[in-house]
Amino acid sequence: MPSPILTHSYCADFYADHGYQFLKKLSQEYVLPNNLVIFSVMHCYEGSLPYINVLAELADKLIFIPKDATVGANPKLLTTIKKIPRCHIVATYNNKAYLKNNEHCEMLIRQHISPDTPFLILDHGGYFSSSITHICDTFKEQCIGITELTANGLQKYINKSISKPLVTVSHLSIKAPADFEASECIVHYSDQILREEFGLKINNSGFLKAGVIGAGNLGRGVIKHLKAKGITNIHVTDIDPRKLTQFPRDGIQACSIKYLVEHCNMLFCCTGNQSITPEMIDALSQPIFISTVTSADDELHLPDLLQQGVLTEVKTNRLTKEYKTRHGHSVYLFAGGESANTPFKTGMGDPTLYLFEAAHMLAGLELIKDATQFKPGIQSLCEDDEIMIAERWLRHFYHYQ
Q: For the S-adenosyl-L-homocysteine hydrolase NAD binding domain, which residue ranges apply (predicted)?
């Protein structure tokens, strides 16, 4: 077995190897078929290299499907990923749209399997959700199952007819530390974009008023890190009013989405599920800055806004895209509407990354081991597996005894 390729440009070989060894040890307890093919959607981050290497060693072929947001920000990283043995890259640069088509999805799968090849789908963001019924029906004997990493991705699978098991790890408690890490990155890099592009600081209360849409792990994390920067005038909204009851005692203004969009001009969209409607964009009365934790497609349905003429693109660069409303107000999407850390080097700075990667991988390994332990349709990874991952992670990275 050749040495794994764990870094691209960072001087972080030791750290990357530590993560690789953690995932490798977890995977070695499973006996896998020799001709297994894994289709894996994931971010094109340098921090993903240890995980990509482990998956490639597990499979006869790993089909790496880079997420649209980060493949554009890190095109040179693909040259490194191509060198990983048994790893094949899907080269389209609009994979989300491509995989929504049943025929395209079927063609991609057939391109990499033979009639007796078992395959597994490790999804991230619901890329296969539109075609999942067709996949399950077409490859009844070969498709082992599907795993989904994110909550917004899982949302896209709900109400689909899925005859194979789909194991989600999106709501596991061990994913919370990574969500917290991500929220810190979102606030930090939003501040950096404001400074570099507009000469503003995120805590400029005379000009910026922060609003957080979504009160889940990510939204709560964003609020915590905004407060750490000395920002006190924060508004928050959520589709579920019960989640808002915790904020007033801490001086956070709970409000409706309509009120928030009307009164705040620095928005953090933390839902992944069309948090801002076209009507709200159309009614804007001031310029607005938007930072998302997923993508503008998920948070704003940006293609629809452009097609309907609600927004018109004006200017774009690596850090920001500017749009104009029909009434001439600017809408600035940080990182082009993708997660605000997308233009920057991310993914190597915290071992929490390996918690959710381990859970995602383990869900797939359990499906391969015995798919009959799962029922058709959506279910979560079991609590015992989650506890086991947490304990091993603590031992590996923090000498837990």
A: 196-347
What is the spatial distance between Cα 22 and Cα 360, in angstroms, rounded to a whole number?
A: 14
pLDDT digits (tens, 9 = 90+) for 148-187: 999 889 999 999 999 999 999 999 999 888 888 889 999 9
Q: Which residues of 315-334 are buried (b: 16+ CB within 10 A; e: fewer)?
A: eeeebbbbbebeeebebbbb
**Number of neighbouring beta carbons within 10 Å of residue 197:** 16
- Strand-pair partners of 165: 377
CA separation for the pair 224, 237 (Å, rounded) = 15
In this structure, what token pair is assigned to residue 13? 């070989």
pLDDT digits (tens, 9 = 90+) for 279-318: 999 999 999 999 998 877 778 888 888 999 999 999 988 8
Same domain, 105 and 188: no
Domain of residue 307, residue span: 176-337
By residue count, the chain amounts to 401
How far apart (Å, rounded) are the C-alpha atoms in residues 360 and 122?
A: 7
Which domain CATH number covers 213? 3.40.50.720
Tokens of 301: 């349905």
Predicted structure pTM score? 0.90
Residue 187 in any domain: the answer is yes
* DSSP structure string for 95-137: HHHHTTSHHHHHHHHHHH--TT--EEEEESSSTTGGGHHHHHH
